[in-house]
Amino acid sequence: MPLRPQQRLRRAFEAWLLRRVPRQALPQRVGRRRVYIMPTPAGYAFGALVFALWLGAMNYANSMGFALAFLLAGVGLVAMHLTHANLLGIHLRQCHGKAVHAGTEAVITLDLGHDGARPRPAIFAHWPQSVAADRDGADLPASDTARLRLALPTEHRGWLSLPPIALETTFPLGLFRAWTWIRPDIRLLVYPAADTRSPSFPQANHAEGEDSGRHLGREHFDSLRDYRHGDPRHDIHWKRLAKDSKPTVKQFLDTADRRLWIDWQALSGDPESRIRQCTRMVLEAHRHGWQWGLRLPGVSLPPDSGDAHRHQCLRTLALLDAPATPHG
Amino acid sequence: MAETKPLPRERLLRLLPVVAIVLAPHAPHLPPWIALVVGALILWRAAAALRAWPLPGRWMRVALTVAAFAGVWISFGRSSGQVAGTAMLTLMIALKLTELNDRRGEMVVLLLLYFTLFTHFLRDQALWTVLWMLVAVVLITALLIDGQRLQRAGWRTDLSAAGRLLLLALPLMLVLWVLFPRISGPLWGTPGASDSARTGMSETMSPGDIASLIQSDAVAFRVTFDGVVPEKRARYWRGPVLWFSDGRTWYPHRRGLGPPERDASADLAPQGAAIDYQLTLEPQSLPYVFALDYAPPGTLPADLQLDAGAAVRSTAPLRATTRFALRAYPEARLGTSLRGALRERALQLPADVNPRTRALAADWRRQTPQAVALAQRALAFYRNEGFAYTLSPPLLGADSVDAFLFDARRGFCEHFAGSFVTLMRAAGVPARVVLGYQGAERSQVGDYYIVRQSDAHAWAEIWVDGAGWLRIDPTAAVAPDRIEFNIDTALEQRGEQRTLPWTGQWAVGAWLGARWDFLNMQWDRWILAYGPELQRALLSRVGLGDWQHMLLALTAAVALLMAVIAALAVRTSLREVARDPLAREWQRITHRLARSGLGPEPQEGPLAYAERIRGQLQGDTLRAFNDATDAYVRGRYLTAQDSDAAAVLHTRIAAARRRVPVLFAAGLRRRPQRADKS
Predict the structure, then answer these.
(1) Which chain A residues are within 8 Å of B591, Cβ to Cβ?
(2) Residue B111 domain boundaries
(3) Which of B502, B528, B562 is the C-terminal boundary of a domain?
(4) Digit-coded pLDDT (tens) for A68-77
(5) Is B120 an annotated catalytic residue?
(6) Among the options B120, B195, B413, B415, which is catalytic?
(7) Which residues of B touch A121 (CB under 8 A)?
């Protein structure tokens, strides 16, 4: 979508401002140094109105017209200071978000607060225009906190440093927009995107061992039996433990060999594509409650199951330095 | 920016009354259909909001807008001019309401409302409009504030926020108003005379004109005499001079002939004692400055000049209250010679009307050919032939002068002046009618004189070779009280009276009226007349006589005020309250004590502080303070786990806080304590 010149100018101005915003550890307090303030479109209209009133008063030599024009000029100037003050002293206390897959939107929660004795109405947060258009706002009560949520689109796997966050307000009159940039020194893990096109677990590469020709997915789990001392912990059926009083253990037909291995070498395609395929398999294996291992160039994760394992796998995949040589 | 959010119903229902309040003062001055349409649209929008009716579609709105334009065009003929513009503006605001359903639209309406306030001042700038302006601006601003909040916060909160904002803005307004250099003269077209429906003197005179004017007690102008005050009977304030008669109505000149040019007949040489005075003229639709007879051209301020009838005219329009410093020479002689075209004008009479008057005049002329003798004869005629001065003369027919002089013989100053000049001209004496004001009443409060519309008057001047224009007031021959006292006294002689407003009828009303007029006089004199001249005159006393210095001082003052406002805003914004509930209560108590002069020192601990001020408290206050100190000090040494104990202490300190009076004189007495809302 082509940008209008006005937007382009605004983005250029924004980029120029953002170059001087350092990364800062949270919590950050909005000080007087870095609050910017500009009229809003309504503010420009108000300025034109005051000017028109002044011209009219002069033309008709109207004293009360002058009084009105100057009163409104005063109102505008005071509103500017109040807008500026409405942002001062606000803390960005916390800022976090859950890991998401590349290509989806991460929801970042911002904890805003302040210690002032007056409420701070209409405080908004948003990303730079070049990043995303999402905005969220709240009226901060006196000396209290509020939580804002901003959706942040992700593109690539790996660490995503949070873009600068603008805190802004147009309160009280909407004639001026005061804002400040905070660039929290926080990064967000972005899992790789899951492949959606290739079939899951193609026969040739989803497992190894003598049973590789069979569909392990439906068969490697057999039955439940009571827990005996020495059973591996990950075989315990934890969900059932909540219902029954005694622990039960999942029993597998062929425990060693039939565990699922997701193997980089067995996949085809360029590295990013393989990472996406691996991601998909990890997600699917986790959904079925299977155990799986992950074998990647230079790193191998032994078979296991559960959320922590899933996270470990996805994290490894997210941060994998993709081998330069594509597989032939 | 995502500003086009939908407008919640509650916000709309708050907006509509404010629209009504701001537009209401216009209603009496606009055609009734506009007031009705605007009112109906506001009510309809409120009903639509309450009943969730659909808003009209685009074509409907276009049709309404076209209809509004057409209606204004039909009512006013053209869509420019102040009243037509105001009508259009109010209609546009009302029409905007029919499509109003988002925040941006609300902002547009509010900005238009600000502008509408100005159109009110074009018509009326009286003292009370200041109050009205402040109230309206607070209301509109409160709506702007409300519109910015995400969640509504009660109209009281918004109104007080708007009020605070305005309080901060007022000093800025004052500084700007006083110091911003004023520029004289209109920038574009001056408002047409047809626009202003001001009551005031007109430039023509037909029977009944002045009689309707004098029903009004409105102030025409006010006068402050610097030294000598002329006698009441000498207070003739000259306005339009009428040369041309069509037999019934008098005009300044014949249509198509153009105004007469000033020549030797308007020569004025200062003579006798001078009278210096200041004249504060209310807005006029005509350019006449009603100067006291006679004002020689050399004494006039710039912008003022004499016309052929020796009336003082302003070259600039007199739309605002304006103050002039003038000088009069009541004994000066007006005119050295009357010749040529002007003499013809002074003798003009319509050919075939008023035959009896002509016959009478011809008769007189044969007997007494001298001008002065003729005038005296005419005055004697009025005096002796049963003429009466009345506000309600009978209707006169086609030959109105004949009907007046020979049948009705009851009339008002315009009848006397008009018939007198007709008689004189018919007798061959150059004569003319002069309109203006006669009189001036001393104000009960303040050292100034008031000339009201009810002092409007018409008199005559005749030309006497060797003496110039002589003033003859035939009304004085009939009703000397009109000249010696005022119109009411003159009418009383006949048992008549004007219909007066209540202020004129009771003593209290008169007393209040006098004071109110004094206030208005000051208002007109200092506030409304504050233009380039007055500004320069006043500011030059403090060394700011030119615009460069004014701008310099203005910049400094505004910068200073802005710094103060910024400091105040930042201070209130950053003033912190303690996060710990116990500490917060303690802080409230110490703030409250600080208001009575018993606050803690910056580095003072709570125990030392309590020890220091305990002696200055007594009774309930002392007990409450001791409780609070005890609870606070205990609370400070609790560990984090003692949440129950902390809650108990918090209850105690909060209870103690409620018992500490809001304000008291330490150790002397305590005021009744206020119920604390928090």
Answers:
(1) none
(2) 9-148
(3) B502
(4) 999 999 999 9
(5) no
(6) B413
(7) 148-150, 153
